[in-house]
Design goal:
The complex is a heterodimer of chains A (180) and B (158). With 180 residues, chain A is of the alpha+beta class. Chain A has helices at 2-33, 37-63, 71-87, 129-141, and strands spanning 92-94, 102-107, 144-152, 161-170. Chain A has a 4-stranded antiparallel β-sheet. Chain B has a 4-stranded antiparallel β-sheet with strand order 1-2-4-3, covered by helices on one side. The chains are: A alpha+beta (180), B alpha+beta (158). The A-B interface holds A 6-7, 10-12, 14-19, 21-26, 29-30, 43, 47, 50-51, 54-55, 58, 62, 84-88, 115, 130 and B 1-3, 5-7, 9-11, 13-14, 16-18, 35, 39, 42-43, 46-47, 50-51, 54, 71, 74-76, 121. Chain A: Homodimer. Chain A: One of its GO terms (biological process) is Golgi vesicle transport.
């Protein structure tokens, strides 16, 4: 019996390892294909964006959270529901700006970067930039334009991983001209 | 925890990236498929190490294949292989009637020409997993009606 339950928890962990390992293979490939880190960062952001715009549908279907009333609620849902659901970690939400339009997600450990070490010649690589693109893409689909970037990264020697999210504006739903 | 979506989407993006610079000639396509297979190989090697670190030694080749069909497939694709056939001479056919990575592509014969791209990574995954279990193999896949597909494993006697 205990062996069986070991299997289930292991298989959940294994699955996030599948994602982590695949992501690692992707970043390695990008580093081989592009000469400089900036290009890799851009690619990761773009791919993340493509993933985000589709992941949001899966998220909304599975989670049953309703429309968020404000940015604070959005932050909580991102940290406590989305991150937990897809990455198995719950970052803490801190460092709110006085205007309430900017906050940080602090991750003690970043599952994407498990087993990863950055070699010396990749100082400006933002390894987990996929996450930034994904958050941006997902939120755009729910009418929020945001700016997302890594403020700290354990892979670059910082003590925690910090993602900074800034609300830019609400996106008005544009209906094509000519539709009733 | 809803895990399939991130991996499915990452897998799609991976394919899109690897295949976008290639035009649709056969040789370019082949190169893309090889690249994807190689990536899958490395991931499979890493994954199987983690998955089997506490399991008992495998009795024989068939035991290894059963592990792939049950534990490995469940861990990666949330279900077991539906059918395993072998000629007991080193050839195994693994049938998955509802392959996770093909489900969103089509249900039937539409987009059949794109299916190989969606199977390459998994072929590599299986080959990599087997490799780290001490089994050298060649893994190919075929699809006739999505989302069902068959993976063919040919054990290479060293």
């Amino acid at each position: 019996m205990s062996r069986q339950s070991n299997r289930t928890t292991d298989s959940k962990k294994m699955n996030s390892e599948l994602f982590t390992l695949t992501y690692g293979a992707l970043v390695s490939q990008l580093c081989k294909d592009y000469e400089n880190d900036e290009e890799v960062n851009k690619q990761l952001d773009k791919m993340g964006y493509n993933i985000g715009v589709r992941l949001i549908e899966d998220f909304l279907a599975r989670s049953s959270v309703g429309r968020c009333q404000d940015f604070r609620e959005t932050a909580d849902v991102i940290a406590k529901v989305a991150f937990k659901m897809y990455l198995g970690v719950t970052p803490s939400v801190t460092n709110w700006s006085p205007a309430g339009d900017e906050f940080s997600l602090i991750l003690e450990n970043n599952p994407l970067a498990d087993f990863v070490e950055l070699p010396d010649n990749h100082n400006t690589l933002v390894y987990s930039n996929l996450l930034c693109g994904a958050l941006r893409g997902a939120l755009e689909m729910v009418q929020m334009a945001v700016d997302v970037k890594f403020a700290q990264d354990t892979l670059r020697g910082d003590s925690v991983t910090e993602i900074r999210m800034k609300f830019i504006k609400r996106i008005e739903e544009n209906l094509p001209a000519g539709d009733e | 925890m809803a895990h399939e979506a991130p991996f499915q989407l990452l897998h799609s993006e991976l394919i899109h990236y690897i295949c976008k610079s290639a035009d649709s000639t056969d040789s370019e396509n082949g190169r893309s498929v090889t690249k994807l297979e190689n990536m899958g190989f490395r991931v499979g090697q890493g994954l199987i190490e983690r998955l089997t670190k506490d399991t008992a030694r495998f009795k024989d080749e068939l035991d290894v294949m059963k592990f792939i069909c049950k534990d490995f497939w469940t861990c990666v694709f949330k279900k077991q292989i539906d059918n395993l056939r072998t000629n007991h001479q080193g050839i195994y056919v693994l049938q998955d009637n509802k392959f996770l990575l093909l489900c969103h592509l089509s249900a039937g014969k539409q987009y059949l020409e794109h299916a190989p791209k969606y199977l390459a990574f998994t072929c590599g995954l299986v080959r990599g997993a087997l490799s780290n279990m001490g089994v050298k193999s060649i893994v190919t896949a075929e699809v006739s009606v999505m989302p069902a597909c068959k993976f063919q494993v040919m054990i290479q006697k060293v």
